Amino acid sequence: MSRSINRDTQLCMSLSARPGNFGTRFQNFLYEALELNYVYKAFTTRDLPAAIGGIRALGIRGCAVSMPFKEACIPLVDAIDASAEAIASINTIVNAGGFLRAYNTDYIAVRKLIERHGITADTRLVLRGSGGMAKAVACAFRDAGFRHGHIVARNEATGRKLAESSGFSWAPDTVGLAGELLVNVTPIGMEGGVEVDQLAFDRADVERARGVFDVVASPPETPLIRLGRELGKVVVTGAEVIVLQAVEQFVLYTGVRPDDVLIARAAEHALS
Domain 107-236: what homologous superfamily? Predict the structure, then answer.
């Protein structure tokens, strides 16, 4: 039986420059399966302060924050959780009676995936990207004890800043860099983008590496992930990241943690 929305229904939402369907399908699937009186809707905005003010004023329970709002939201909330404070990047806002606290569940998800895939701290990283998501990923590796790596970014200012904060080195491109784990935190390979068919790293670099990690979740099989699988490398996908971070958001919004079977069903539904 379909849920009915009423005056007591709690609204959760997302803010993104290019809203997708994953969060909406994932969260609403869990709300219905667990018979929770919540509903989730994706939005975009050209007036970020007004949008965040609306969350507070209308009693919206929670908000997922995606590019390009992960840093710009920080001065608009009341408190920053430890998961977001150290990296100055948020992806989740929780509203408790008009008090807005921000978190970074991307960071939490990456920390869990490092452990799940057995990636050891002596691994040499080459991480491509320097935006808000790259901050979460780089700092998750830093806090997991990784000390050897490079941040590759065409923007020298943001690249150097992220490299310094995460304890890695900066490079403008991948030429001459030998990474055991290649990490893509850019839109290269993203569905709908101009670089959807491109590899984030040269094939020769992938052949030399032990593993690849691509945070792009749509499509689930990016060119980098497909090549990594073909070559028998350790593979960490953006789909894994997006599911784990969405679970943590769900828990923050509802106080309920679904079991692994239900999470897998929700992920299959959202990614189909």
Answer: NAD(P)-binding Rossmann-like Domain (3.40.50.720)
Its sign, for the CA torsion 136, 141, 144, 149, is: negative
**Which one is the CATH code of 10-103+240-271: 3.40.50.620, 3.40.50.10860, 1.10.10.10, 1.25.40.10?**
3.40.50.10860
How many whole angstroms separate alpha carbon 171 and alpha carbon 181?
A: 16
Q: Which entry of 70, 112, 135, 161 is annotated as an active-site residue?
A: 70
The reply to whether 70 belongs to the active site is yes
**E strand segments, the chain:** 10-15, 38-43, 62-65, 79-80, 92-96, 99-103, 125-128, 149-152, 169-171, 181-184, 211-214, 234-236
Quote the CA–CA distance of 105 and 102 in Å, as a whole number. 10
Percent of the chain whose predicted confidence (pLDDT) is above 70: 99
Q: How confident is the model at residue 2 (pLDDT cuts 50, 70, 90)?
A: low
The pLDDT of 118-146, averaged and rounded, is: 95
Question: In the numeric block, which tokens belong to residue 225?
Answer: 């992930």
Domain map of the chain by residue range? 10-103+240-271, 107-236
